[in-house]
Amino acid sequence: MIEVCNITKRYGHLTAIDRVTFRVEKGEVLAFLGPNGAGKTTTMRILTSFIPATEGTAQIAGFDCAEQPDEVKKRIGYLPETPPVYQELTVAEYLGFVGKLRGLSGASLTQALDRVTERLSLGTVRQRLIANLSRGYRQRVGLAQALIHDPPVLILDEPTVGLDPKQIIEIRELIKSLAGSHSVILSTHILPEATAVCQRVVIINGGRIVAEDTPDQLSARLRKSEKISITLKAPPANVAERLREVPGVEHVLATSDPKTVLIECALGRDIREDVARFAVGQNWGLLEMKPVSMTLEDVFLKLTQREEELPKSNDTTVGEQQ
Ligand SMILES: Nc1ncnc2c1ncn2[C@@H]1O[C@H](COP(=O)(O)OP(=O)(O)OP(=O)(O)O)[C@@H](O)[C@H]1O
Ligand SMILES: [Mg+2]
Predict the structure, then answer these.
(1) Residue 247 phi, psi dihedral angles, 5° rounding
(2) Which of 105, 140, 152, 240 is most deeply buried (CB count within 10 A of its CB)?
(3) What is the DSSP letter of 124?
(4) Pairwise pLDDT comparison (268 vs 296), residue with the higher score
(5) Which CATH fold topology does 224-292 show?
(6) Is 34 near ligand 1, meaning CB less than 6 Å away?
(7) Which atom of ligand 1 is nearest the CA belonging to 204?
(8) What percent of the chain has pLDDT over 70?
(9) Distances (CA, A) of 185 to 5, 55, 160, 194
(10) pTM recorded for the entire structure
């Protein structure tokens, strides 16, 4: 439904995105995850025919985003970073206006307005001026305008930004309800958002795609070994050395708690039973044993590490000059 092939966008010397390739199938929700300045908005603006790519092609439902912008725009709903809502209109006037722009009129326009008003819980603010709405409600109006013509493709640039926790859950539920019937790309730099609503995550950093997979597979792929943490009531001084006697144990790492150690073994191997039997046999008082898994947050930090380190080294230079 969405096909992006090797798109690059340059602004003068700056390469905002560099040979980005991915696709989104019908009914799929894809998260575009990346830190500030990664190139998320740039990619979305190309997909919505707002700006052309310098190189490469992007297609929506088989239509080229640069060559056939009218066909593309008909099939997408777009929630930009800053929703383009007219302050001096009421919610109902604005949504009616957008609906007409989308070619709706008469009964079909009324129906569409009722549908989005209900879906985004906008009933109570229908007659309010957009200028007087809270940020969260404005964001919902932005989503309502993206959905008014019930497009098959939705491109949502940070859809939950500025919302309170209750509204975040509501919007996530809404996005989940679109899965199956719509193709959705949403950009975010919030990890739980990617895991909560998406089947697939594309991680972008410095304009390049650094990983693409399901949330679970992403963390599994980056894991090099299995780790378990055990807490003992009375560990001996040489606990690390002793634990290495257990078949399969590769490394034993200390933690900040002297009673807790991390045991590493090869990926796919389960040594919990052997470790437990050994600890109990030694009378160490096994208080707790749990697998330590790598969260998507760990994966994200690892993949975007280089960029995270840059500001730190710059800061040091500035500090030294002063
Ligand atoms: N019109 C423009 N002219 C020059 N540079 C631009 C322009 N638009 C974006 N850029 C640059 O392109 C890079 C990618 O920006 P983009 O807005 O796509 O990032 P983003 O992932 O959406 O970030 P954020 O999370 O902050 O919204 C940035 O370095 C940005 O400064
Ligand atoms: Mg952006």
Answers:
(1) -60, 135
(2) 140
(3) G
(4) 268
(5) Alpha-Beta Plaits (3.30.70)
(6) yes
(7) 21
(8) 89
(9) 16, 21, 13, 11
(10) 0.76
Average pLDDT, the chain: 87
> Quick check: 232 pLDDT over 60?
yes
- Rounded to an integer, the average pLDDT of 10-39 is 93
Atom of ligand 1 nearest to the CA of 11: 4
Beta bridge partners of 2: 24, 60
Ligand 1 atom nearest residue 40's Cα:
21
**Where exactly are the structural domains of the chain?**
2-220, 224-292
3-state secondary structure of 73: helix
User: Cα separation of 232 and 245, whole Å?
Assistant: 17
Cα–Cα distance for residue pair 228/103, rounded to 1 Å: 59
Range with lowest mean pLDDT among 29-43, 64-78, 127-141, 210-224: 210-224
Residue 19: phi and psi, rounded to 5, are: 45, 60
Average pLDDT of the residues in 166-190: 89
Evaluate: CB of 11 within 6 angstroms of ligand 1.
yes
The torsion angles phi and psi of 264, rounded to 5 degrees, stand at: -110, 140
Which residue's CA is the nearest one to ligand 1's atom 29? 37
Spatial neighbors of 185 by CB under 8 A, at least 6 apart, are: 2, 24, 30, 31, 32, 44, 47, 154, 155, 156
- 11, 203, 304: residue to mutate for ligand 1 pocket, most atoms within 8 A of CB: 11
pLDDT at res. 296: 62
> Taking 90 as the threshold, does the pLDDT of residue 313 lie above it?
no
- Decide: 188 in ligand 1 pocket, CB within 6 A: no
Three-state DSSP state, 6: strand
Determine if ligand 1 sits within 6 Å of the CB of residue 82.
no
Q: Reading across the β-sheet that carries 55-60, which strands appear in turn?
A: 14-24, 2-11, 55-60, 63-64
> Is the minimum distance from the CB of 39 to ligand 1 under 6 angstroms?
yes
Burial 103-125 (b: 16+ CB within 10 A, else e): ebeeeebeebbeebbeebebeeb
- 249-269: per-residue pLDDT in tens? 998 988 888 899 989 888 778
Q: Whose CA is nearest to atom 17 of ligand 1?
A: 41
